[in-house]
């Protein structure tokens, strides 16, 4: 695709592309402007006792916090604790968890139209997430510790009477063995409880390090970024539609490409200045003489009618050009033969003589007039008179539009000139070929038509 094709696409689809960009951007800007303001409250949680050793571990911590914060049961429990009547599903959509680098800190945020509600929900969610993290991390240790404590209490209760009996009967081996067995159980359970306590302490506890506050300012709307995204999306959609249209209805740009497809020359571009019209008329006359036609028919590739004033301007420039005087000068040869000096110099059988300046057609000169042996009288330059007996091509008599062509004159020698606008569909070029084939007329050339209808009939 060259610059000409790009210019054609911009001329043809420039407005459509501008609308495709502007409409989504304006609609989205109005939509964002009319949306109610929102407020976001933040809480920061230490979600792990040890610092993650890699970014992947930090991301896993953030994912764990987000999974807990968006769980329906956690949200429902948090809303109940804050005495808020909200939909848990809507709350889950407004919750966000963001990691702070590769640390164990996680930023938990909730967005709402009310700043007080945002602060209350965030506080309740942070407390619920911290409790769940501790429960997940420690597992069933609290229940195990409670069970061990209960067993120790029971053993201590049973030991008291046995110890009293053993003290009263120090020589009774049965009582002494029972007391020793109970003491061993109490010592073993106490050791297990200490070990479990140490494991629970080593697991660490999640905690809230930054409590949520009531937001003082509303969240930024981000209108420029959203409008830019909407404009880019509209541009992509517009380009896609243009591509589909150009694929299904291909077109070419300018008269040059139309002429290349039809394998004919470009005769110029229609304009209002006399110099350009004179050049167009000259080219049409030359093309008509070469093709041997007497009538030139003008037709637009799009089959739209040509204004009569445009046809008149082209016809006047072609058939009635401004006369340009011309002289045909022949330098005298070297005269070194007496017989030649005495021989008469003739043109068309007449003795040469001084003639007035006339406009001559070189094709009408008698070949005998160019005899180099002919002497020259009256000066060093001889002016040759035109003759009327030379054979000439058929003279161009008329230029008209296709719709003005008289059916009685369709049998004459007619040549076709096509006017092509800045954008011409390929199907219109095919119509020109069909017209040439049906009429048998030669195609003289293509004229650029800036005022023609672009793209053909819809």
* Poorly predicted runs: 325-331, 334-392
| Shape label | rod-shaped
Extended strand count: 15
Order the strands across the largest sheet as they lie in space: 6-15-13-7-12
Could you give the distance between the termini? 25 Å
Q: What is the alpha-carbon Rg in Å?
A: 52 Å
Summarize the structure.
The protein has 458 residues and is of the alpha/beta class.
Word description of this protein:
This protein is of the alpha/beta class and 458 residues long. The chain folds into four domains: 3-35 and 222-248, no CATH class; 36-220, Bacterial polysaccharide co-polymerase-like (2-Layer Sandwich); 253-324 and 393-448, Rossmann fold, CATH 3.40.50; 329-383, no CATH class. Helix content is 50%, strand content 14%. It has a five-stranded parallel beta sheet with strand order 6-15-13-7-12. The protein has a four-stranded antiparallel beta sheet with strand order 2-3-1-4. It has a two-stranded antiparallel ribbon with strand order 5-14. β9 (346-347) and β10 (350-351) form a beta hairpin. α6 packs antiparallel against α7 and α10 packs across α11. The two termini are 25 Å apart.
């Amino acid at each position: 695709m060259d610059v000409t094709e790009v210019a054609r696409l911009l001329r043809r689809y420039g407005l459509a592309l501008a609308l495709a960009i502007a409409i989504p951007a304006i609609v989205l800007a109005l939509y964002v402007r009319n949306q109610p303001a929102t407020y976001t409250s933040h809480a920061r949680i230490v979600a792990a006792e040890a610092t993650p050793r890699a970014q992947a571990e930090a991301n896993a911590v953030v994912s764990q916090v987000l999974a807990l914060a968006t769980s329906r049961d956690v949200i429902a429990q948090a809303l109940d604790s804050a005495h808020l009547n909200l939909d848990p599903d809507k709350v889950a959509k407004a919750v966000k968890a963001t990691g702070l680098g590769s640390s164990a800190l996680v930023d938990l945020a909730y967005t709402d139209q009310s700043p007080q509600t945002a602060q209350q929900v965030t506080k309740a969610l942070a407390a619920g997430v911290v409790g769940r993290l501790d429960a997940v991390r420690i597992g069933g240790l609290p229940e195990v510790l409670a069970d061990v404590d209960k067993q120790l209490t029971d053993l201590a209760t049973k030991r008291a009477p046995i110890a009293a009996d053993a003290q009263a009967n120090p020589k009774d081996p049965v009582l002494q063995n029972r007391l020793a067995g109970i003491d061993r159980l109490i010592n073993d359970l106490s050791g297990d409880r200490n070990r479990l306590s140490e494991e629970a302490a080593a697991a660490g506890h999640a905690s809230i390090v930054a409590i949520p506050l009531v937001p003082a300012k509303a969240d930024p709307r981000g209108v420029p970024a959203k409008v830019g995204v909407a404009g880019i999306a509209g541009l992509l959609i517009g380009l896609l539609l243009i591509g589909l249209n150009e694929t299904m209805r291909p077109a070419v740009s300018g008269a040059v490409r139309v002429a290349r497809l039809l394998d004919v020359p470009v005769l110029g571009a229609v304009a209002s200045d006399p110099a350009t019209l004179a050049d167009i008329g000259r080219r049409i006359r030359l093309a008509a003489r070469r093709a041997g036609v007497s009538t030139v028919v003008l037709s637009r590739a799009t089959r739209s009618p040509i204004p009569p004033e445009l046809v008149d301007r082209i016809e006047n420039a072609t058939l009635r050009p401004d006369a340009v005087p011309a002289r045909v000068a022949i330098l005298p040869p070297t005269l070194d033969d007496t017989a030649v000096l005495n021989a008469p110099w003739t043109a068309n059988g007449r003795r040469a003589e001084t003639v007035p300046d006339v406009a001559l057609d070189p094709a009408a000169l008698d070949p005998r007039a160019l005899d180099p042996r002919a002497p020259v009288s009256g000066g060093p330059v001889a002016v040759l008179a035109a003759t009327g007996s030379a054979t000439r091509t058929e003279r161009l008599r008329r230029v008209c539009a296709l719709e003005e062509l008289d059916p009685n004159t369709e049998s004459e020698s007619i040549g076709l000139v096509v006017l092509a606008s800045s954008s011409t569909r390929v199907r219109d070029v095919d119509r020109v070929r069909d017209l040439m084939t049906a009429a048998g007329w030669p195609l003289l050339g293509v004229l650029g038509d800036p005022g023609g209808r672009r793209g053909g009939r819809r």
